[in-house]
Amino acid sequence: MIGMLAVSKAGRDKDNTYVIVGQEGEYVYLADGRVRTVDRPKKKNRKHIQVIKKTQINKPEDGFKDLEIKRTIKAYQEGANV
């Protein structure tokens, strides 16, 4: 599940697109590369997100980069195949 895109279904950030950068039990950690960076991801309950299975970033050995996350989200929102 790590590296997949997800859309928030509930909360103040509803309809925002994120990349899942971590998971812990029933919670996932989300980053968008701008407001929610990899250094301070948003903790969100799994049932409050919708996973987008057609797009995924492979997790690099040195971790995710904010620039890569921003580009992936932008390409998805513009309708390009990533």
Describe this structure in words.
It is built from 1 helix and 5 strands, in the order βββββα. It is an alpha+beta fold and 82 residues long. It is globular, with a radius of gyration of 11 Å. The protein has a 5-stranded antiparallel sheet with strand order 4-3-2-1-5. It has one domain: SH3 type barrels. A hairpin with a 2-residue loop joins strand 2 and strand 3 (27-31).
* N/C terminus separation: 17 Å
Judged by helices, strands and strand pairing, the structural class is alpha+beta
Radius of gyration (CA) equals 11 Å
- As a percent range, the share of helical residues equals 10-25%
Q: Return the domain count.
A: 1
Q: Please outline the major beta sheet.
A: 5 strands, antiparallel
Protein topology:
Elements: E1 4-8, E2 17-24, E3 27-31, E4 42-45, E5 49-56, H1 66-77
Antiparallel strand pairs: 1-2, 1-5, 2-3, 3-4
Features:
globular, single chain, alpha+beta, 82 residues, five-stranded antiparallel beta sheet, 1 helix, SH3 type barrels
Brief synopsis:
This protein has one helix spanning 66-77; strands at 4-8, 17-24, 27-31, 42-45, 49-56. With 82 residues, the protein is of the alpha+beta class.
